[in-house]
Amino acid sequence: MTLFWLSVGFGFVTASVLAISAVGLSLQFGITNYINFAYGDFMALGAYFTYVLNAEFFHLNIWIALVFGSLLMGILAVLLNQFLLSPFARRFSKSFYVMIVTFGLSLIILNVIYSIWGPNVRNYTMPLEHVLHIGPFLLTRDQLIVMAAAVLMMLGVHLMLKTTRLGKSMRAMSDNTTLAMTSGIDTRRITTVTWFLSGTMAGIAGSVLGIAEGNLTPAAGELFLFVIFAAVIVGGVGSIYGAMAGAVLIGMATEVSAAFINPAWKLDVAFVILIITLLVRPTGLFSRPGKG
């Protein structure tokens, strides 16, 4: 078993976590047209919701706890948008001001997490697992579930956008909000649904990140946020399929490179890929017209 194949196997796991989070962020950006700098903290808070349901109070199975914890994060995302972000977006036409608000929201959520759960590392309650030999890879059952869940979610997002009325309305609103409104699309409802989906996916991503890394810390989401931005920008800002492709590229590159260089530098690899992409194709590899 070579170190290269071990790193490729974990690269698939990282790419799966990254794909869920990057698509969630891209969905929200496509509708609101501003970046949510609190997204990493959404991930962390969703992961701690799962922790409460799994290890602190209710002692639910980790996957059941993940579902309910992520749904709670989705509901909270809707409430934060309804009572905080939307009023600012309606008052200020420039998205810059709302982005500043999301940065402040990030600090608030991070400090709330520190206040409630403290800075100590937390762990989910999970049974010990044997490592499975699958071809040249070494993976646990939980890692396989994470990858399968990511594939199913990406397929679900694709089918929703292409075949459902909701998905078509979201695409229309992403292309031109004013035209979508004049065409009879309930843009407020679409925005609410999008925030729920984005928040839920953030909760799922944060929880599976904690499962993949084996621990939970308040700053984990913020540290992962840069990698998410790299995947979204490399794939093309506003492109859902670009976010998927960018997640695979960045996730695989960071983990494989860690097998040959100091693992502490793997985030630098994501930064290098981001810089090269911006130099060669500033709008991203799969950018959409009008969103690049």
Describe this structure in words.
By secondary structure, the chain is mostly helical. The protein has a single domain (about 5-280), classed as ABC transporter involved in vitamin B12 uptake, BtuC (Orthogonal Bundle), CATH 1.10.3470. It has 11 helices and 2 strands. It has helices at about 5-30, 40-55, 60-90, 95-115, 140-165, 165-175, 175-180, 185-215, 220-235, 240-255, 265-280; strands at about 130-135, 135-140. Strand 1 and strand 2 form a beta hairpin. Helix 1 packs antiparallel against helix 10 (about 240-255) and helix 9 runs parallel beside helix 11. The chain is globular, with a radius of gyration of 19 Å. The chain starts with a helix and ends in a 12-residue tail after the last helix. The mean pLDDT is about 90.
Show the helix and strand layout.
Elements: H1 3-32, H2 39-56, H3 62-91, H4 95-117, E1 132-134, E2 137-139, H5 141-163, H6 165-175, H7 177-182, H8 187-213, H9 220-235, H10 240-257, H11 266-280
Antiparallel strand pairs: 1-2
Helix pairs in contact: 1-5, 1-8, 1-9, 1-10, 2-3, 2-4, 2-8, 2-9, 3-8, 5-6, 6-8, 9-10, 9-11, 10-11
The largest pleated sheet is described as: 2 strands, antiparallel
CATH class: Mainly Alpha
Low-confidence stretches: none
Which architecture name does CATH use? Orthogonal Bundle
Strand content: under 5%
CATH topology: ABC transporter involved in vitamin B12 uptake, BtuC
Number of helices: 11
DSSP E strands, number: 2
How would you sum up this structure in a few lines?
With 292 residues, this protein is mainly alpha-helical. The chain is 74% helix and 2% strand. It has helices at residues 3-32, 39-56, 62-91, 95-117, 141-163, 165-175, 177-182, 187-213, 220-235, 240-257, 266-280; strands at 132-134, 137-139.
